């Protein structure tokens, strides 16, 4: 049964008056846990079973520290390496890396003090710097830890295996989590849906990188078109902090390509561009200590959008004035005029 595909009323009826166990600790898992807690309260507490925690930021705390200013403004992108950036920008990113570390460390300390993650054993294994580069971040549901305190949410960390049993779930070591309903919110194999679209295994091997996890990005030009199969476009694979408007930008780029407004370079030039992103992906994966989502462009989203804008014949600088360009965060409204 696909919980995410159910109508809201049917999903609410499924969990109402039942002990629910949710496996996972990402944004979707926490949203489901919060919904179950709101429906059932402490009489039927919802149990969240997880192996590792993520950096889930309380929305009130995020607004207080202007979280998105630090994740989507141009001045913050100067502190990270970018694909095809050139010598000067590479030198600048290397020079500013201690500043990026310091800002991330201050944010990490502030979030730990402002959000009771230590009290409830929800401190992530990765640093905030690693989490922000690989986008292992999310917004915490409103009042989540208040629900933990009042008993409507229970947290169970399990480093080992999790299995089903007659009473619900059995954790590594034999502990049983009683549950009438178990919801798996552990994500999915991100490559499989794309492979399933392609009837030819040969095309699947060409478009989708190896299953051994060695590839950090998909081998697509502008994250959309394979250099040797330009007749097919992929939109929506790359991960970002706010995925909807980057996907919209990809769709606009593909629409311009179909209209002839975007002209693809030679195959060799496209492969060179893909290789630049692949090298950057390997650097990002090393910098994240393994906590890097595949084809994640979260830390360089504006840089990526600049490339798309140039291809489409639009100016990449979308703000009014140099100061605003450097300091204000970028968002969907900045690209709304591109049709």
UniProtKB/TrEMBL annotation:
The entry's keywords: FAD, Flavoprotein, Monooxygenase, Oxidoreductase
A single GO molecular function term of this UniProt record: monooxygenase activity
Stored InterPro entries: FAD/NAD-bd_sf (IPR036188), FMO-like (IPR050346)
Membrane spanning stretches: none
PANTHER family hit by this protein: DIMETHYLANILINE MONOOXYGENASE (PTHR23023)
Name the UniProt record assigns to this protein: Putative flavin-containing monooxygenase 1
């Amino acid at each position: 049964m696909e919980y995410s595909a159910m109508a809201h009323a049917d999903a609410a009826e499924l969990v109402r008056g039942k002990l629910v166990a949710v496996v996972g600790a990402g944004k979707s898992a926490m949203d489901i846990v919060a919904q179950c807690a709101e429906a059932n309260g402490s009489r039927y507490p919802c149990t969240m079973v997880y192996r590792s925690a993520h950096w889930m930021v309380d929305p009130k705390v995020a607004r207080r520290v202007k979280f998105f200013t630090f994740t989507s403004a141009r001045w913050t992108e100067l502190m990270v390496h970018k694909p095809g950036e050139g010598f000067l920008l590479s030198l600048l990113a290397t020079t500013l890396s201690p500043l990026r570390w310091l800002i991330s460390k201050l944010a990490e300390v502030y979030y730990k003090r402002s959000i009771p993650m230590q009290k409830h054993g929800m401190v992530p294994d990765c640093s905030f710097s690693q989490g922000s580069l690989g986008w292992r971040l999310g917004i915490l549901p409103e009042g989540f830890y208040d629900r933990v305190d009042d008993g409507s949410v229970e947290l169970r960390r399990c480093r080992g295996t999790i299995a089903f049993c007659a009473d619900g779930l059995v954790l590594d070591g034999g502990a049983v989590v009683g549950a009438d309903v178990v919801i798996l919110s552990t994500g999915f194999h991100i490559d499989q849906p794309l492979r399933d679209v392609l009837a030819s295994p040969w095309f699947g091997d060409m478009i989708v990188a190896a299953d051994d996890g060695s590839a950090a990005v998909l081998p697509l030009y502008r994250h959309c078109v394979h250099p040797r199969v330009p007749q097919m476009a992929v939109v929506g694979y790359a991960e970002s902090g706010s995925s909807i408007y980057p996907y919209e930008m990809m769709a606009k780029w593909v629409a311009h390509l179909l209209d002839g407004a975007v002209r693809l370079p030679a195959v060799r030039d496209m492969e060179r561009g893909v290789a630049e992103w692949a090298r950057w992906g390997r650097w990002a994966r090393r910098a994240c200590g393994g906590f890097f989502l595949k084809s994640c462009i979260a830390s360089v989203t504006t840089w990526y959008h600049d490339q798309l804008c140039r291809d489409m014949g639009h100016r990449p600088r979308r703000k009014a004035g140099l100061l605003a360009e450097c300091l204000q965060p970028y968002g969907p409204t900045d690209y709304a005029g591109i049709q």
